[in-house]
Specification:
globular, single chain, 86 residues, Translation Initiation Factor IF3, 2 helices
Length: 86
């Protein structure tokens, strides 16, 4: 599944969690999001199939916005905009 809005800012940070299994991609993504400013984008690369459910749930729980997702066969890429409440 690919969700692609008409325009999106470039990521402030890219985090590659390839090879890591749950809960590490979620944990590392949350840490990375703490290190950026509200409105900035985290690009997250994962190979854990559970990330397709886990990352959107984490973003929703934190009050962040999932801007875009790409499922590239065995790799998932997420663009998460940090919310103002986290």
């Amino acid at each position: 599944m690919t969700t692609n809005p008409t325009s999106e800012p470039a990521p402030a940070v890219t985090l590659d969690t390839s090879g890591l299994l749950c809960p590490l991609p979620v944990y590392k993504a949350a840490l990375a999001l703490k290190g950026i400013e509200p409105g900035q984008i985290l690009e997250l690369i994962c190979t854990d199939p559970g990330s397709l459910a886990d990352i959107p749930a984490m973003a929703h729980q934190r009050g962040d916005r999932l801007v875009r997702t790409e499922d590239r066969d065995t790799t998932q890429v997420f663009w998460i905009e940090k919310g103002t409440t986290t």
